[in-house]
Design brief:
This protein is of the alpha/beta class and about 500 residues long. The protein has 2 domains: about 200 residues, P-loop containing nucleotide triphosphate hydrolases (Rossmann fold, 3-Layer(aba) Sandwich), CATH 3.40.50.300; about 160 residues, Rossmann fold (3-Layer(aba) Sandwich), CATH 3.40.50. The chain contains 14 helices and 21 strands. The strands form 5 sheets. The chain has a 7-stranded mixed beta sheet, covered by helices on one side. The radius of gyration is 27 Å and the shape is globular.
């Protein structure tokens, strides 16, 4: 169906692929994995024909139809949900049927796309893609911004579709559920494993162990032969044997062990302490057009809390975070910032915060007028941008690399309060672990949004569920029940328990 043959690709001195081979078989679901910046998205673009290999060929079956869901979705400003889905190319009733399946109501069809949350924008793009009925479905980080119910629906849809799928994801649980094969970009080549992501991890560990063992045996033999050569090099009676062993060494193809890929390494700087009360929202009303998001919302955050905002797409999580950050106005109510509070805000869509024309160093420098260049270079280096890469424009970076720049910007000046909207999106698992450790060690206050259950479990000390107009009480079996804080706002219910201690015993009442 699709063949990658001896493909090489590089940008300047940076090699992405070198003599790479792979075969995408019909009705397989293949996960494409590798560290940020390894060339995963570039490979998809070459398959689409948007970029060309420097060497080699990508062969596709004649008239092969490829559907592509990119990492950064086109905003489609000025279009309604229905117009964006069918694009005037497909029957309108079919578009409505698929949109309904994706959770849109009849009233939503006329809503402007730019007013939707990230998860619902993704659903519009997915509806348009499914209407095209592609032979191969290529997805770049499709679960970013998806809530758990939508992701579950999406997984079931893909499993039942029978389509050939090639997808990039750093969501290891999603890869385990979906994939039948894994392609890993490793040492500029593509190596393939049959099975899901867990199977791949076991296979990779075994292969790496075999390569390490073989390399040690080879090095031991090379040392033995070289010792013989050095010992008898100048003895005439051993000349023929010495020459034979020299030729033997010249023919040896050395096993080169690749080092573990570099990992992001950082720690949030120690900020000055704030007062006890960090944020207070009182009697907040917020709506978009006719849709009411919050009515009479009261919400407080205190120093040292790590607050997770959870709930379905469109419930108002990002809206609440933006109001806390002071970047979104509301129709009624007051926002009070506590004594000594300094804030860093990490937006869900990086295009909202990063100038695409700026270089990495420019993007860091614009945070502070007095930061020294050497400090900024060192900071960029800590996030794996070194040498000429530091002068690359933001628009040339992958999604994971842009997220790393945005995280680096938060370290230029210390702040005691972090507002983070889906900070793990586009980050590889190793970088997510580093971010998790840094957030746990951070002495200040954090309010964050994430759909990653493991990330939530490790970080949150307080959970606020935004439930789009309904109330649910949770309790734990036994005597020790969670303390529930009812708000005048009908949209939020808060459980003031450590999220790490929640177990299957929790239930709805």
């Amino acid at each position: 169906m699709l063949q990658i043959e001896d493909v090489s690709k590089q940008y300047g001195p940076r090699i992405l692929l070198q003599n790479a081979w792979a075969h995408l078989r019909p009705q397989t679901r293949t996960g494409l994995v590798g560290p940020n910046g390894a060339g995963k998205t570039t490979l998809l673009r070459m398959i689409l024909g948007e970029e060309s290999p420097d060497k080699g060929t990508i062969r596709k079956r004649p008239r092969l139809r490829i559907g592509y869901l990119p990492q950064e979705l086109e905003l489609l400003s000025g279009k309604t949900v229905l117009d964006a889905a069918h694009r005037n190319e497909y029957p309108e009733h079919e578009a409505k049927r698929i949109l309904s399946g994706l959770g849109f109501s009849e009233a939503d069809f006329a809503r402007p796309v730019e007013n939707l949350s990230g998860g619902y924008r993704m659903r519009v793009a997915l509806a348009s893609l499914l209407l095209s009925n592609p032979d191969v479905l290529m997805l770049d980080e499709p679960t970013n911004h998806l809530d758990r119910p939508t992701q579950t629906w999406f997984e079931q849809f893909l499993l039942k579709s029978g389509m050939t799928i090639l997808l990039i994801s750093h969501d290891t649980r999603f890869l385990d559920q979906i994939t039948t094969h894994i392609w890993e970009i490793h040492n500029h080549r593509i190596r393939e494993c049959r099975g899901n992501y867990s199977t791949f991890l076991e296979w990779r560990a075994a292969v790496d162990a075999q390569e390490s063992s073989a390399a040690k045996r080879q090095e031991k033999e090379i040392t033995r032969v070289q010792t013989f050569i050095d010992r008898f090099r100048y003895q005439a009676n051993k000349a023929s044997q010495v020459q034979s062993r020299i030729k033997q060494l010249e023919k040896v193809k050395r096993i080169e062990l690749t080092r573990d890929p570099k990992r992001v390494r950082f720690k949030f700087p120690e900020p000055p302490a704030s007062g006890r009360h960090v944020f207070e929202l009182r009697n907040i009303d917020k709506q978009y057009g006719e849709k009411i998001i919050y009515r009479n919302l009261d919400f407080r955050v205190e120093r040292g809390q790590r607050v997770a905002l959870v709930g379905e797409n469109g419930a108002g999580k990002s809206t609440l975070l933006k109001m806390l950050a002071g970047v979104l106005e509301f129709e009624k109510g007051t926002r009070t910032l506590g004594h000594g509070v300094t804030v860093h805000y990490f937006a869900q869509h990086q295009a909202d915060t990063l100038n695409p024309e700026h270089t990495i160093l420019d993007s860091l420098a614009e945070i502070s007028n007095h930061a020294e260049t050497n400090f900024l270079r060192g900071l960029a280096g800590a996030f794996l941008f070194s040498g000429p890469d530091q002068k690359k424009p933001i628009k040339a970076l992958s999604g994971g690399e842009r997220n790393r720049v945005a995280l680096a910007r938060m370290l230029v000046e210390p702040a005691n309060t972090l507002l983070l909207d889906e900070p793990t999106n586009h980050l590889d698992p190793a970088s997510v672990n580093v971010l998790t450790d840094a957030m746990i060690d951070f002495p200040g206050t954090i309010v964050f949004i994430s759909h990653d259950p493991t990330f939530l479990m490790r970080i949150a000390t307080r959970v606020v569920e935004i439930d789009d107009g309904t109330r649910r009480r949770r309790r734990r079996r036994g005597k020790n029940r969670s303390r529930l804080h009812r708000r005048t706002n009908q949209d939020t219910v808060e459980t003031a328990v450590n999220f790490q201690k929640r177990r299957p015993g929790w239930r709805n009442r």
